[in-house]
Write a structure and sequence with these properties.
By secondary structure, this protein is mainly β. The chain folds into 2 domains: about 45-120, Immunoglobulin-like, CATH 2.60.40; about 130-205, Sandwich (Immunoglobulin-like). It has helices at about 85-90, 190-195, 200-205, 210-215, and strands at about 5-10, 15-20, 30-35, 45-55, 60-70, 75-85, 95-105, 110-115, 130-135, 140-145, 150-155, 165, 170, 180-185, 195-200. The chain is flat, with a radius of gyration of 19 Å.
């Protein structure tokens, strides 16, 4: 999501979302990071975890990192960060940079949100090379995807086959595998050969250029 508006990064069992709030100008854009405790009954115990923010280039290079412990009681919330774009970016190019906010319990990733600092069409998205690995898993298959660079808004399709995927339209970070469950009664070879993987960078690379007047209006 673009940081042309204020952004709220919420972590929690029932609420893992990023919301855009109206603001007057992009110069004042801020990112708020907070943890919202789960609302299940009975409520879960207090969470003793840590949050981490990494500022990264499109090639996966970590430009800066912040990390801090976070203890949140059930049915409560805690703001753990309030950053202006300038604080997050420093001298980095907003079109070639993004921030990753994570909530971790030890080495276990509880939630993750990715923040962008420019509209999608203005981002210098790389051409991602996405690799896939398959294995049998329950009533279907486990599909593990890895990318050498950021792959934004990855979309999986299987043509007209009867296939269900546990997640779709997600961001794939460089060097961080993501495993999805693919439900299907069809043979693995048939499902595997039908898989098509698209991402926003590849889609935009094949799109016609914007008219000069549209680009000038941004």
């Amino acid at each position: 999501m673009s940081a042309s508006k204020n952004q709220v990064v919420c972590f929690g069992e029932a609420l893992i979302d990023m919301l855009a709030l109206p603001q007057a100008s992009t110069d004042d854009a801020r990112t708020f990071a907070q943890y919202a405790g789960g609302g299940a009954a009975p409520p879960p115990p207090a969470l003793n975890a840590r949050w981490r923010m990494r500022l990264m280039g499109m090639d996966g290079k970590v430009l800066s990192k912040r990390e801090q412990k976070a203890t949140v009681k059930p049915l409560s919330s805690l703001q753990v960060g309030n950053f202006s774009d300038k604080q997050l970016l420093g001298s980095a190019d907003p079109k070639k940079t993004y921030a990753v906010f994570q909530l971790l319990d030890g080495d276990t990733l509880l939630s993750r949100e990715v923040v962008f600092f420019a509209p999608a069409k203005q981002l210098a998205l790389p051409t991602a090379k996405i690799d896939s690995q398959w294995r049998a898993d329950g009533d279907g298959y486990a599909l593990t995807l890895t990318s050498n660079t950021l792959a934004r808004e990855v979309w999986l399709s299987f043509g007209d086959l009867e296939v269900k995927v546990s997640d779709n339209a997600f961001d794939l970070l460089p060097g961080e595998p993501l495993t999805l469950h693919v439900s299907s009664k069809l043979p693995l070879a048939q499902v595997q050969s039908a898989l098509q993987v698209r991402d926003l960078g590849s889609t935009l690379a094949g799109a016609p250029p914007e008219p000069p007047e549209a680009a000038a209006a941004k």
